[in-house]
Amino acid sequence: MKNETVIILDFGGQYNQLIARRVRECNVYCEVHPYNKITIEEIKNKAPKGIIFTGGPNSVYEENAPKVSREIFELGIPVLGICYGHQLMAHVLGGVVTTPDTKEYGKTSTYYDTDCLLFKGLPSEGISWMSHTDYVKELPEGFRVTAHTDACPTAAMECKERKLYGMQYHPEVNHSENGTKMLRNFLYEVCECSGDWTMESYAKTAIENVKNTVGDGKVLLALSGGVDSSVLAILLAKAVGNNLTCIFVDHGMMRKNEGDEVEAAFSNMDINFVRVNAKDQFLGKLKGVTDPEKKRKIIGEEFINTFEAEAKKIGKVDFLAQGTIYPDVIESGAGDAATIKSHHNVGGLPDHVDFKEIIEPLRLLFKDEVRQLGLELGLADYLVWRQPFPGPGLSVRIIGEITEEKIAILQDADKIFRDEISNAGLDRSINQYFAVLTSMRSVGVMGDERTYDYTLALRGVTTTDFMTADFARIPYDVLETISVRIVNEVKGINRVVYDITTKPPATIEWE
Fold first, then answer.
1. Which of 84, 250, 372, 470 yields a CA-CA distance of 20 to 30 A from 173?
2. Active-site residue (options: 83, 116, 191, 193)
3. Is the pLDDT of residue 39 over 50?
4. Of 86, 91, 132, 170, which residue is the catalytic one?
């Protein structure tokens, strides 16, 4: 991809992906690199329009704190430091960073000098999101203060001549008023970007790249029916047509009607679509298993076995396509940040797989960009906006042993929940919502008779990155409609509860 590029150096900040997403939203392509995994020469070779330093948990004056070479500020490339990055810039260039008497956390009234290009066209006062124990006490030579708060005299600084800028607060979070506009000003007013990152141009380039890579070769894709694999399937279909084979392993634990919907969406395309109905063999392997980690491992292993057995029937295939997306890449190769999770589809070709090469056309994209690409390619809305769904399916939303009866109960209840959220117009404002069939039974009364049935838990969250999440404030009348319908229409459930736990301390999924 030959787009204008901004490099984001990650110093372990929790918002690194969010900064990148904000930059992409401004139609500028960016890459996130751990600060200690990219050299000055590599930065020069990439010829970025700008560099952004993220926040981080350290203090710049500590002996083992993340550092950068002074040379990075002498490349003539605009630099924006955020939080720790702001302090690091000051420290490396001769300023003084120390711990103040008063620390700032959360929403803070901030006063901006609108002569600074970062604040061009913006109000001189606003709320910014602060999260710091240190601050810049003395500016480096050639810098001036461009924003302050009542407690922090250097909320922002600039050296206009060298195009070096710092912000103590986090402009990337929603709590900072006009924060995205400030980032946009850095990109367009300081870095002089033109904004050539669009899904239309990405789609054309990605299709062309696949064509050039694959040629007349055969491509195999494990199609799960999730957003990533569905968007990848339609992109590959446009690139290689019937040289693509999609294997859809239906383990019987999809949401209601989902297997049929996936088949309907892809069966009319000029591709080879194979659906493997493997519910019986998966349920057989899961019989008597209650531990969630064992369930995941059994399903993962059985999926690979089923996929490989089906792939052997096809014959020689040259390329294996995977739906790796950019957060997978970032999370699997973190610098000083903790590795959040390892990803099976990042890190190269498995030794036992007989393919020439893995292709990953979505590797540069965030989840919201994958959805945009799907819309650009004409993928059906119900696939583009499909709710995130774990690979093991409903097995990790059924507490305890998996049975065919429990799957049917949860499918019906989950369908009602999703339908009513959609009917209420909340389906785009709640980032993830689903039902969980608990292992708890409780006493109820229906038609003057005693019941002893399952308790169903509903879960809805709002989040920007799925690393932290708040519970969705679903209106009571909507929850009431959902509860009444589920109890009346789904046999086996007599109680419905709503999960109001944030992440952390809870996870989004229950298992």
1. 372
2. 83
3. yes
4. 170
| Range 124-136 average pLDDT | 91
Q: Count each helix (H run) and each strand (E run) in the chain, helices first.
A: 14, 20
Tokens of 355: 């393919």
**Pairing assessment for the beta strands 470-471 and 493-498 based on DSSP bridges:** unpaired
Is the pLDDT score of 351 beyond 80? no
Nearest to 146 by CA among 131, 137, 158: 158
Give catalytic status of residue 191 as yes or no: no
Q: Give me the pLDDT at residue 331, please.
A: 59
Count of Cβ atoms closer than 10 Å to residue 436 Cβ: 22
CA 58 from chain centre, in angstroms, equals 25
Burial 39-48, CB ≥16 within 10 A → b, else e: eeeebeeeeb
- Structure confidence by residue, pLDDT tens digits, 469-503: 899 999 999 999 999 999 999 999 999 999 999 98
Would you give the end-to-end CA distance of the chain in angstroms? 39
Q: Is 272 exposed, middle or buried (0-12, 13-18, 19+ CB in 10 A)?
A: middle
Please indicate whether residue 301 is annotated as part of the active site: no
Query: What is the crossing angle of helices 258-267 and 227-240, to 10°?
Result: 20
Pairing type for strands 29-34 and 493-498 reads: unpaired
Active-site entry in 172, 177, 258, 302 = 172
For residue range 74-103, what is the model confidence (pLDDT) as tens digits? 999 999 999 999 999 999 999 999 988 777
Verify whether residue 369 is a known catalytic residue: no
Would you call 32 helix, strand, or coil by DSSP? strand
Checking if the pLDDT of 366 tops 90, the result is no
